[in-house]
Amino acid sequence: DQFKQSLDEGITYQSVVGARGAFFKVTLLAYGYTFVSKGTVAGHIKHLEHETRVYERLKPIQGRYVPVFLGTIDLRTVDKDYWIYFETYVVHMMFMSWGGLLLDDDKMDQLGVLDEIAWVDEGIEALDAVHGKGVLHCDVRWANILYNPDTNGIMLIDFERAELFDEAEPSDEESDKEESMPMSTEQSQIWKKIWDRARKENYDVVFIIEDALEIKN
Prior knowledge:
A hairpin with a 4-residue loop joins β1 and β2. The termini are far apart. The chain has a five-stranded antiparallel beta sheet with strand order 1-2-3-7-4, with helices on one face. The chain has a three-stranded antiparallel beta sheet with strand order 8-10-11. Strands 5-6 form a two-stranded antiparallel sheet. With 217 residues, it is an alpha+beta fold. Helix content is 34%, strand content 25%. The chain is globular. The chain folds into two domains: 2-96, Phosphorylase Kinase, domain 1 (2-Layer Sandwich), CATH 3.30.200; 101-212, Transferase(Phosphotransferase), domain 1 (Orthogonal Bundle), CATH 1.10.510. α4 runs antiparallel to α6.
């Protein structure tokens, strides 16, 4: 109902734009709840729809290693759009809980957590959790690795480039089937490529965290 009435109150463009989305702060005026939104133009809606599917896959780890996904809206259904700059109108928005703060050694020191957290272990744990749900992030970089004060750990964001594969942790029934039905050579090669890429993402997150927080080996 709030969006039907107006987009002038409760939505604040944060002047942060990525390759396919713009960042907003959103407040539900009737309740005072505040969260974040990623909005995009008509030509990039498919990428946010893909990201929605990724968040659905990651539902079991939302709120710990990734933000909580809250839903989407096509503003055109309420006859609205949101102008952000010259001839650029956001028409599709997805909503999530706040992910956290960008990693910065001075900021983390001010918060008193720089030397209190095993940062590299936290980063690997977050990525392992994502990989364990059948998702390759495919865009592991500084801007997508956050410190969340509520969990006191690392939270990963921005899954529009992520790739989905069969979940890495089969059920007991599936495990029994796998024991009696060995993978073909082609299947083995596919899984090897997936896990090689997953390991590469782990190496990337280690380097990024060590560089951002000036962690000495």
